[in-house]
Write a structure and sequence with these properties.
little secondary structure; 2 strands; binds iron/sulfur cluster
Length: 56
């Protein structure tokens, strides 16, 4: 995979862990590589998406 270039912020990332199904699509397409799957599980039993830098 080609290296990703940082792009200017165009909004704010908010993950609703309660409804995340852990599909990892957001992590795969994040242009700044800011999203990972959490180490914990939500109430549905999925590892939700989480932000590497909550300030973004
Ligand atoms: S992993 Fe990302 S794209 Fe998939 S359900 Fe959770 S927040 Fe949405």
């Amino acid at each position: 995979m080609a290296a990703r270039r940082a792009s200017p912020a165009r909004g704010r990332i908010v993950v609703n862990e309660a409804i995340c199904n852990g599909c990892e699509l957001c992590a795969a397409v994040c242009p700044n590589d800011l999203i990972r799957m959490a180490d914990h599980y939500n109430a549905k039993g999925y590892r939700p998406a989480t932000l590497l830098d909550p300030e973004w």
